[in-house]
Amino acid sequence: MKLQSxxxxxxxxxxAKALQTSLAPMVSxxxxxxxxxxxxxxxxxxxxxxxxxxRAAVVVLSYPGLQPEEVRLAEGKPGLPYIPGFLSFREVPVxxxxxxxxxxxxxxxxxxxxxxxxxxxxxxxxxxxxxxxxPAIGCAKSILRGRYDRLDSGAGSRAEMVDRGEVVGxxxxxxxxxxxxxxxxxxxxDLDSAAEWVLACxxxxxxxxxxxxxxxxAAGRLPSGRLSADEAGRKSKDSDDQARESIATQQxxxx
DNA sequence: GCGACAG
DNA sequence: ATCTTGTCGC
Length: 255
Known about the structure:
The protein is an alpha+beta fold. It contains 6 helices and 9 strands, in the order H-E-E-E-H-E-H-E-E-E-E-H-H-E-H.
């Protein structure tokens, strides 16, 4: 896929901070996800190896079947060490190579980290949304910014997270009695839609399939490439059909 | 000055 | 991100 080049990536923390504040106003908080979502992507980075290089992975899943259809990998030096608030400048430089080699164009991207729930309202999900121009969602396992008070224990429960008086995200319980994930807007999506997409990817697990498989791919446990149109393609088409069917019957119960 | 701090 | 042990529930 073609990416927008907005600025240099290997910059100092001070430059990164200035870029974040100047890019944050470009983020769209409006839902622009169409009804015809066929592909959802997840991205992740491995921890650095002994030479200090990381492996970036992007995995494109069919929707609603959630079967992997394309896996792309890239290796390189992180743009920065891990510094809270600057994760995108660490991970995205290497992720760019993987994203550019993508044949499929995802309709939604789910990032492993924050979107708006960030000190300057510009987490990695926002950054990925801008450079890909694809609707993006932040789904983090822990909090960077924001507080919430009460969250019911049932799956699907959510609570607004507030930082400096602004609602920056949601604590979302994806499974009953497990710690929530923290969802925020990345780009071209609203918060409620973002939560629905995360839930739709969770198949009864705590984390979305996108993050799970991207994590496996970054760890080198998934073969890269376009899954062949025969067995894998038929498999994912079958599970898409099955998933559509079960969505239809579930909706039928409420009509 | 101190604490908090995505991956 | 990593590491370890114990506990709970199906």
